[in-house]
Design goal:
The structure is a single chain. This protein has 15 helices and five strands. The chain is α+β, with helices and mostly antiparallel strands. A five-stranded antiparallel β-sheet has the order 2-3-1-4-5. The longest helix has 18 residues.
C-alpha cells in the first residue's frame, strides 16, 4: 500500500457557538463511527473553542495512506458545511509531485457566503467596483471574514486606495495570522510606502505559510529578492533569486514571463556583491530570453554588461538608494 506526503492549511469560521458545536460534534462522530479513528487530525488539535473556529496552520504528514487521506478530507468537508467563512487547501504528494489537490470552502446559501463567492468571482474578472460592494456585504454579515478582507484589500490596492488596502490586510491577518495571501498583499502596500524592510518581513511569513507547489511561493521569492536588491542586501537577493532562475514555469502560471527580469536582477546582485564572473553569466543569460512582462530594454542589459566587463561597480550599487537601481518592472505585476 502506497503512502503519501500530505500538506494542508486553512481556517473555518463559524457564525455562532451553536454552529461551532455542531461542527465539532459531527467531526468527532465521523472520526469515531465512520472512520474508526483512521484520520491524521484530532479535533482537539484543530478546533479552537475560544475563537469558535477551526485553525490549521501549515500541517505536514510525511507518510499517510490514501484511505487516511480520504477519511480526513471527508471529515473536514463535513465541518465546512457548518462554516460561514474560511477555506482549506490540501495536497497529496508522491515523490514530490502533486497527485491530488483539494480546495474546501463554504458554499451554502447564507448571504455572507454567497456575497463572498460573488465578490471573489468579480475580482477575477477585474470588476473592482462591483467586487468591493459584494465583499462589503460579506464583511457586514461576518465581521471575522478574513478571506473577504483579504480580497477587498487587493481590490482597494488596485483602486490605489492604499490606506484602505492596508486596513483590510491587517484585519485579515488579525483573524488568520497564517494567511499567506494577506501577508503577501500587505507587503505590496509596504513597497508603495517604500518600506522595503517591512515588506521583506511579510514576504518571509508568506514563504513560511506557502509551499513550492503554489505560484505565490515563487512570486514571493522573486519580489523579495528584488527588495533585497534595492536595500543593497546583495547576498540575500542572490539567495532568493537563484532558485527562481532555475525554475521552469508553465505559460498559465503567473510567474511565466519574468525570467529575463530574474536573471537581470541576479546579475545586478552579483555585481553589487563584486562577483563579476557570475554577474556576466547572469546578464548574458538574461539576453537569451524574449521580452516578457518586464520593461527592460536590450540597451539596459548590454549597458550593464559593458560596465561589468570594464570591472566597474556603478555608484548606485555601492551606495544603494531606493529608486536608483532599475529592477526591470513595477513590482506589482
Amino acid at each position: 500500500m502506497s503512502n503519501y506526503r500530505i500538506i494542508l492549511a486553512g481556517q473555518f469560521i463559524f457564525n455562532n457557538q451553536r454552529s461551532f458545536e455542531m461542527a465539532l460534534a459531527q467531526y468527532n462522530q465521523r472520526v469515531e463511527i465512520h472512520f474508526k479513528y483512521d484520520v491524521f487530525l484530532r479535533s482537539e488539535n484543530i478546533f479552537d473553542v475560544e475563537q469558535n473556529c477551526v485553525n490549521i496552520p501549515r500541517h505536514v504528514e510525511p507518510e499517510i495512506t490514501d484511505r487516511t487521506w480520504r477519511n480526513t478530507v471527508s471529515a473536514l468537508e463535513t465541518v465546512c458545511e457548518y462554516a460561514i467563512a474560511g477555506s482549506l487547501s490540501a495536497w497529496k504528494l508522491e515523490n514530490g509531485k502533486i497527485i491530488e489537490h483539494r480546495e474546501i470552502e463554504p458554499n451554502g446559501d447564507k448571504s455572507a457566503i454567497q456575497s463572498y463567492l460573488l465578490g471573489k468571482r468579480l475580482v477575477g474578472k477585474g470588476e473592482d467596483k462591483a467586487a468591493k460592494e459584494a465583499l462589503d456585504q460579506a464583511i457586514q454579515k461576518c465581521e471575522r471574514h478574513a478571506k473577504a478582507y483579504e480580497r477587498r484589500g487587493y481590490v482597494n490596492f488596485r483602486l490605489k486606495n492604499f490606506k484602505d488596502a492596508l486596513y483590510d490586510f491587517n484585519k485579515s491577518i488579525i483573524v488568520n495570522p497564517h494567511s499567506e495571501e494577506a501577508h503577501f498583499g500587505r507587503a505590496f502596500v509596504r513597497i508603495v510606502e517604500k518600506d522595503y524592510v517591512s515588506a521583506v518581513k511579510d514576504f518571509d511569513i508568506t514563504l513560511k505559510n506557502s509551499i513550492p507547489h503554489q505560484p505565490i511561493f515563487w512570486k514571493t521569492k522573486r519580489i523579495k529578492g528584488e527588495c533585497h536588491l534595492i536595500l543593497g542586501e546583495y547576498k540575500m537577493a542572490i539567495l532568493e533569486l537563484i532558485p527562481v532562475s532555475k525554475r521552469v514555469f508553465k505559460e498559465e502560471d503567473n510567474n511565466f514571463g519574468w525570467q529575463r527580469k530574474v536573471w537581470f536582477n541576479l546579475g545586478q546582485a552579483h555585481l553589487g556583491d563584486e562577483n563579476f564572473k557570475e554577474a556576466i553569466i547572469a546578464l548574458e543569460k538574461a539576453k537569451t530570453f524574449p521580452e516578457g512582462k518586464d520593461n527592460l530594454t536590450k540597451e539596459d542589459i548590454d549597458g550593464l554588461i559593458k560596465e561589468v566587463k570594464a570591472g566597474k561597480i556603478p555608484n548606485q550599487y555601492r551606495n544603494p538608494v531606493p529608486g536608483n537601481i532599475k529592477t526591470g518592472a513595477p513590482f506589482l505585476n
